[in-house]
Amino acid sequence: MKTRKDGEATRNAILDAACKVFGEKGFHKATHAEISREAGVNTALINFHFGSKDELYRKVWERVSKNLNELYPIDGKIPAAASAEERLYGHIRSLLNRALDPRMEGFHRIRTMESINPTGLLDKARSESMQKSRAYTLSLTRELLGPDATDQTVELCEMSVISQCMVILRPLGCKSKRLHHRFKHSDVDSLARHITQFSLAGINAIKNQEKDRKH
Question: How far apart are CA 152 and CA 146, in angstroms?
Answer without folding.
Answer: 13
